[in-house]
């Protein structure tokens, strides 16, 4: 069952704390945030960004040390492919008062979900097969070569592993939608369960 929303902790004073995280993703949803262009800097100035691997150095232990519920809004894009991503998703679920599934991969599996057409072993074998081979002929890892991190048996959408407070649809969501969603999320007015942040839908 998806990890449930934690007990609501009182909101800390000061600027809203915001986190961005990506699981298995093409990067397009991150790009949608950057595509806010001139709207991005003022928006970030209104917030305290506590996690954004795309732009800021980070350490997992720093996030683990945050009190539960102390991040006001966490935006997670991408589907969940790796065990590590499952752990990050659950960690951010605990730390965030509002957690948002950003993009089709987080909502439904999306493009990353196509990985379920074959098993993880077949994908790795295909990746290790030299171009031009008639059939999969995987080559062995070279000494010292980094190994793939542990993968889950199948790709799962974020919405399957944690309860989400809101969904920002699209592949990727348009910058206009991102901007409207951020405004909605920073508004303390209650959300409907798994509210879809798309005013025109
Ligand atoms: Fe990329 Fe689309 Fe998935 Fe976003 S929803 S990570 S743009 S494939």
Q: What this model shows, in words?
A:
It comes from Anaeromyxobacter paludicola. This is Methyl-viologen-reducing hydrogenase delta subunit. Keywords: Iron, Iron-sulfur, Metal-binding, Oxidoreductase. The chain is α/β, with parallel strands linked by helices and 201 residues long. The protein has a single domain, classed as 3-Layer(aba) Sandwich (Rossmann fold). It contains 8 helices and 8 strands. It has helices at residues 28-34, 40-45, 60-64, 83-95, 103-108, 120-127, 158-161, 175-186; strands at 17-22, 48-51, 71-77, 80-82, 96-102, 151-156, 166-168, 195-196. Bound molecules: iron/sulfur cluster. Iron/sulfur cluster (SF4) is lined by residues 25-26, 28-29, 77-78, 103-105, 110-111, 171-172.
Task: Write a short abstract of this structure.
This protein has 201 residues and is of the alpha/beta class.
CATH third-level topology: Rossmann fold
Instruction: List the secondary-structure elements in sequence, H or E.
Output: EHHEHEEHEHHEHEHE
- Order of strands, widest sheet: 2-1-3-5-7-8
Determine the number of helices (DSSP H or I, runs of at least 4 residues).
8
What is the CATH class? Alpha Beta
* Rg on CA atoms, Å: 18 Å
Secondary structure: number of strands: 8
Known CATH architecture: 3-Layer(aba) Sandwich
Bound molecules: iron/sulfur cluster
Query: Which superfamily, in CATH terms, is the homologous superfamily?
Result: NADH:ubiquinone oxidoreductase-like, 20kDa subunit
């Amino acid at each position: 069952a998806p990890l449930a929303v934690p007990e609501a902790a009182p909101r800390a004073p000061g600027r809203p704390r915001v986190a961005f995280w990506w699981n298995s993703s093409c990067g397009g949803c991150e790009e949608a945030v950057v595509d806010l262009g001139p709207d991005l800097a003022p928006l970030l100035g209104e917030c305290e960004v506590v996690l954004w691997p795309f732009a800021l150095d980070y350490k997992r232990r720093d996030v683990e040390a945050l009190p539960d519920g102390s991040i006001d809004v966490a935006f997670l894009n991408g589907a969940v492919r790796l065990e590590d991503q499952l752990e990050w998703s659950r960690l951010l679920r605990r730390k965030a008062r509002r957690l948002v599934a950003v993009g089709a991969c987080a909502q439904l599996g999306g493009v990353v979900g196509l990985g379920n057409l074959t098993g993880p072993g077949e994908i790795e074998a295909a990746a290790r097969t030299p171009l031009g081979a008639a059939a999969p002929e995987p080559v062995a890892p070279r000494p010292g070569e980094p190994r793939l991190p542990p993968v889950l048996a199948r790709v799962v959408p974020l919405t399957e592993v944690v309860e989400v407070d809101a969904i920002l649809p699209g592949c990727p969501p348009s910058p206009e939608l991102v901007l409207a969603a951020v405004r909605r999320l920073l508004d303390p007015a209650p959300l409907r369960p798994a509210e879809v942040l798309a005013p025109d839908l």
